[in-house]
Amino acid sequence: MRSRVTIKNSTDDETLNDTSAFNPFELVTLFVTRRKWIAGTVGTIMVLTALVVLLIPNQYKSVATLLPSGPVDKMADLKSIAGLGGFTASDENSSELFPTILTSQTVREIVLNTKYDFDNDGSTMSFTLPEYFNIENRDKLHRELAKITSVSNDKKTGVITIAVETKYPAFSQAILTKYIAELESFNIHKRRSQAKESAKYLARELEKRKKELIVIEDSLLSYQQVNRDWMGTSDPFITMTVARFQRDLEIKNQAVFYLTGELEAAKLNAQKDVPIVRILDQPSLPIVKSGPARTAIVLLVGVTTFIFMLFIVVFAEAARKASRGEASKTFNEMKIEISNAFPISARVVNRMKRVGQIPAG
Q1: Neighbouring-strand partners of residue 63
Q2: What's the DSSP call for residue 166?
Q3: Sequential DSSP letters for 43-83
Q4: Rounded-to-integer distance, Cα 29 and Cα 85, Å
Q5: Single pTM value for the model
Q6: How confident is the model at residue 186 (pLDDT cuts 50, 70, 90)?
Q7: Average pLDDT of the chain, as a whole number
């Protein structure tokens, strides 16, 4: 009977044991050993970050809110979810177009060209936005203005919130006030409504009918002057011609009378048809800075640097072992060790491989 002999490869066992070289206890020991270097690096980065953010000037945000005018589409959220937003037209005479008007190039160009006078800590300052940004290129100016301006519209209530943020409180308030003034001016002088178009059409028609009425009156007068005895004449042709002139004259008179009344009504409707800018909260004068969040920035940089330093320590230790021949591991085995030390990173890498963001292997 032939006996079966099992031979174990000691090299495989050593390699298998080496794959667990970075156990939790060793990681803690490694981090404790390098604690001064880690803490020093993190502390230095946080100090440098604090010095940098201290150089960033405070920002002050002025905020104003506008009430809706016209009907509010209460189904706006459901329509946007269903993808029907592009198939439903907004009422052109409501406040739904206010955000579009405020962010239009026409309004922004006026805001950019305006010179603002405001008080800052007791001293009067005066400059334009190009001077504030120190930029001459118009495209860059529009982008910078868009960065400091925010316009939001609550789909449920229709309330519009406008905010402008600069490093001067009164300057932010002055710019926001100009925005609202231009919105009112645009609605009154440039925004076209159905009632305005009707009034223009009726005015043209009324002028045309008045001219026709004058022509008929002159024709009747001329005919009567030629036939002075038209009232007592027995000539049927003269009687019929005068009657025809009088009939046309009456028709034109009625048309002029009707169009005059319709025109006056259309003018009144045009005044009511223009959406009124109803201001709920006037542009505020900010007292407390809105940014930058220096403490949050420094803490975020500190935490990010700390995590990055932990990875650096692990990689450095793995490289040291490989260079000194303490572990003859392949690159894949080193990845296994790092995955064991940081399970979260391994799961993130595997997930990215599945979605195809990084190549497999």
Answers
A1: 163
A2: E
A3: HHHHHHHHHHHHHSPPBEEEEEEEE--S---TTHHHHHHTT
A4: 59
A5: 0.57
A6: confident
A7: 78
Summarised one tens digit per residue, pLDDT across range 308-360 is 988 888 888 777 777 765 544 445 555 565 566 666 666 666 666 665 554 55
Residue 279, SS3 per DSSP: strand
- Assess whether pLDDT exceeds 90 at residue 274: no
Least confident of 232-236, 245-249, 274-278: 274-278
What's the one-letter identity of residue 172? S
Residue 228's closest CA among 219, 238, 213? 238
Residue 43 CA to residue 334 CA, distance in Å, equals 30
Q: Measure the CA angle with vertex 294, ends 291 and 296; round to 5°.
A: 105
Do the beta carbons of residue 56 and residue 289 sit within 8 Å?
A: no
- In whole angstroms, give the CA distance from residue 159 to residue 279: 10
**pLDDT tens string 43-62:** 999 999 999 988 888 999 99
Closest CA to 120 of 64, 57, 65: 57
Contact criterion met (CB below 8 Å) for 179 and 164: yes
Using the structure block, give the residue that is written with the tokens 């190039």: 105
Mean pLDDT of 20-32: 67
Long-range (24+ apart) CB contacts under 8 A made by 103-110 are 103/146, 103/149, 103/151, 105/142, 106/186, 107/179, 107/182, 107/183, 107/186, 108/142, 108/145, 108/146, 110/178, 110/182
- Per the model's pLDDT, the better-predicted residue between 127 and 194 turns out to be 127
Looking at residues 238-255, what average pLDDT do you find? 87
| Integer Cα distance of 176 and 143 in angstroms | 17
Pick left, alpha or beta for residue 241 (phi over 0 → left; psi -120 to 50 → alpha; otherwise beta).
alpha
Examine residue 130 and say whether the peptide bond preceding it is cis (omega within 30 degrees of 0): no
Tokens in use for 232? Answer: 């007592």
Q: What is the CA radius of gyration of the chain?
A: 40
